[in-house]
From TrEMBL:
Catalysis performed (reactions): iminosuccinate + dihydroxyacetone phosphate = quinolinate + phosphate + 2 H2O + H(+)
Documented EC number(s): 2.5.1.72
Keywords: 4Fe-4S, Cytoplasm, Iron, Iron-sulfur, Metal-binding, Pyridine nucleotide biosynthesis, Transferase
Protein name, as recorded: Quinolinate synthase
Organism: Flavilitoribacter nigricans (strain ATCC 23147 / DSM 23189 / NBRC 102662 / NCIMB 1420 / SS-2) (Lewinella nigricans)
Main location: cytoplasm
Role, per record: Catalyzes the condensation of iminoaspartate with dihydroxyacetone phosphate to form quinolinate.
Pfam families in the record: NadA
InterPro entries reported for this sequence: NadA, NadA_sf, Quinolinate_synth_type2
Length: 310
């Protein structure tokens, strides 16, 4: 890319020229968040993807999110700036293994966290996100047993919160399982006035010491309404950009990960850059293409979720 190009200007031009909408997750780098038409959590992004009248959806997020957008708007062109932007959590639940697992519980309702592949959604009765998970579980009749996949940490949190004893798949997110309880406890001691807030994909020992647990949108809203001036944030650090913008006089400290990891940025989310975003819009690729049967069999699980969350 010509280094003299103003990428912000060029991307704005391409948006108009191609009637494109940029949807960005909170874990994207700050520049991408700033140029996006909509920034949100997984639920908000799905709702936008389902309702947009743009011709092209440029998904600044990871692969499963762009797949979800494609399932919801199959006639639109869906672009992901870097096709390799995957997800360790989605990868931790291969559909062929899950199919065998599910066969052991033929009468169970399958609830899958939206962070899973499009193919896994074809084996799912109803999807959920971290924003609506409790509500979705509570919508299932009490006499029905539930399998929850793929995130075991969110699953355990939901078992505790709803009192429903679910069969859990053993998957996890590489970003949310690296937080160090010991270092966080020391940080809390040094900042006694700070609120410690965490995403439910974190391990149980982290959630136990949290003042507030929520999805990315839930955490952001909490920091806006709280009287506290300092927050220790246990989720991907990208969300801090919006927290800081909304509350410039408050301080946000990324929760420390353990020693094996240098930072709490998702390497998959961070594959997208402003330059790749520009190129993907210009050349309209990489494009998300799904087999028709995956759209046909997977979409109902997302539609059910959106109906319940409306
Ligand atoms: P939410 O933004 O829906 O809370 O999801 C977090 C996440 O891990 C997305 O990859
Ligand atoms: Fe997947 Fe975790 Fe990255 Fe979200 S933060 S995309 S769940 S690896």
């Amino acid at each position: 890319v010509d280094p003299t190009l103003d990428l912000f200007e060029e991307i704005e031009k391409l948006k108009k020229e191609k009637n494109a909408i940029i949807l960005a997750h909170y874990y994207q780098e700050a520049d991408i968040q700033d140029i996006a038409d909509y920034i949100g959590d997984s639920l908000g992004l799905s709702q936008q993807a389902a309702s947009t009248d743009a011709d092209m959806i440029v998904f600044a997020g990871v692969h499963f999110m762009a797949e979800t957008a494609k399932m919801l708007s199959p006639d639109k062109k869906v672009i992901l700036p870097d096709l390799k932007a995957g997800c360790s959590l989605a990868d931790s639940c291969p559909p062929e293994l899950f199919r065998k697992f599910k066969a052991k519980y033929p009468d169970h309702v399958v609830v899958s966290y939206i962070n899973c592949t499009a193919e896994l959604k074809t084996l799912t009765d109803i999807c959920c996100t971290s924003t609506n998970a409790v509500h979705i579980i509570e919508s299932i009749p009490k006499d029905k047993e539930i399998i929850f996949a793929p995130d075991i940490n969110l699953g355990r949190y939901l078992v505790k919160k709803t009192g429903r004893d679910m069969v859990l798949w053993n998957g996890s997110c590489m970003v949310h399982e690296i937080f160090s309880g010991e270092k966080i406890t020391k940080l809390i001691e040094r900042h006694p006035e700070a609120k410690f807030i965490a995403h439910p994909e974190c391990e149980a020992h982290i959630l136990e010491i949290a003042d507030f647990i929520g999805s990315t949108t839930g955490l952001l809203n909490y920091t806006k309404r709280s009287d506290a001036k300092e927050f220790i944030v246990a989720t991907e650090a990208g969300i801090i950009h919006q927290m800081q913008k909304a509350s410039p006089d408050k301080t946000f400290i990324p929760a420390p990960p353990n020693n094996t990891c240098a930072c709490n940025e998702c390497p998959h989310m961070r594959r997208n850059t402003l330059e790749k975003l520009y190129l993907s819009m210009k050349y309209e690729q990489p494009e998300i293409i799904l087999p028709q049967w995956v759209i046909d069999e997977g979409r109902a699980s997302i539609d059910r979720m959106l109906e319940i969350s409306a």
